[in-house]
Amino acid sequence: RKEVEQDPGPFNVPEGATVAFNCTYSNSASQSFFWYRQDCRKEPKLLMSVYSSGNEDGRFTAQLNRASQYISLLIRDSKLSDSATYLCVVQGSNTGKLIFGQGTTLQVKP
Amino acid sequence: SAVISQKPSRDICQRGTSLTIQCQVDSQVTMMFWYRQQPGQSLTLIATANQGSEATYESGFVIDKFPISRPNLTFSTLTVSNMSPEDSSIYLCSVVGRGNEKLFFGSGTQLSVL
Q1: Mutate to test the interface with A, among B4, B34, B43 (most CBs of A within 10 A)
Q2: How many CB atoms lie within 10 A of CB A63?
Q3: How many CB atoms lie within 10 A of CB B22?
Q4: CA nearest B40 in A: which residue?
Q5: Percentage of chain B modeled with pLDDT above 90
Q6: Burial class (CB in 10 A: 0-12, 13-18, 19+), B107
Q7: How far is the alpha carbon of B114 from chain A, nearest alpha carbon, in Å?
Q8: Are strands A98-100 and A84-91 parallel, antiparallel or unpaired?
Q9: A72 vs A81: CA distance, rounded Å
C-alpha cells in the first residue's frame, strides 16, 4: 500500500462546477498535511496547508479526518485556470519528510 | 517564500555522461532537498543536502550516482553521474521556508538522456 494515495483522475468538469478530491494516508502518526498544485511542466507550488479544524481560502476548502486518515480538497465555482494536477502531501512525524501522492489531474472545460 | 533559482532548466545528454544541476536560494535556509519526478509519477525524495557534511540519501539512492554538494546555506548542487535513459526525469531543488515548515521548489531541471 502506498503511503499516500490519490485517485489520478482525470476529473473533467465544466466551468462553475464544484469538485472534490480525496487523499488517504497510511501513517497514523503523520503530523502535517498540504495540498500542492502542479501545472504541466512546472514545479509544484503550495496551494494550502490542511489543519485539523479545516481551512478555507476563497474557493478552496481543505479538510482533515484523522480518524479515517484522509484529507480532502473542495474547489467551488471551478475556473479554467484551476486546470492542473493537485498533489496531496503528508509530513511524517518521525522523520519530518514530506511524502507526495501521485496527484489528481483536474481539467475544467468551458 | 524563498526565491529559488535552478539551472539548467533542461538538458539533453548522452548516455554515460554526467550533469550537474545548481540550486541558488536568495536567503539562508537550513533545509535543502533534491527530488526527482519521473514521467507520470509523483515526487520522490533523493536526498537531504546538509551544509558542511555529506548528504543524507533515501533508500534506493547512493552518493556515487547522485553526488551532492552544499558548501553554504544558500547553494547546492546535484550531479547525475554516468547517466542512462532511466535517469530521464525532472529534478527539483526544494527548501523549507524560514520560520515555517512549508516546502518551496525551484523551477526544476528537465533531463533527457539519449
Answers
A1: B43
A2: 19
A3: 16
A4: A102
A5: 78
A6: middle
A7: 20
A8: antiparallel
A9: 20
User: 3-state DSSP call for residue A77?
Assistant: coil
Cβ-in-10-Å burial (0-12, 13-18, 19+) of A95 comes to exposed
- Residue owning grid cell 550537474: B20
Task: Tell me the C-alpha distance between A26 and A40, whole Å.
Answer: 28
Please check whether residue A108 is in contact with residue A56, taking contact to mean a CB–CB distance below 8 angstroms: no
Cell of B62: 547512493
> Which of A37, A95, A98 has the highest number of chain B CBs within 10 A, making it the mutation to test binding with B?
A98
- Give residue A22's identity as a one-letter amino acid code: N
Work out the pLDDT band at B42, boundaries 50, 70, 90.
confident
Burial class (CB in 10 A: 0-12, 13-18, 19+), B82: exposed
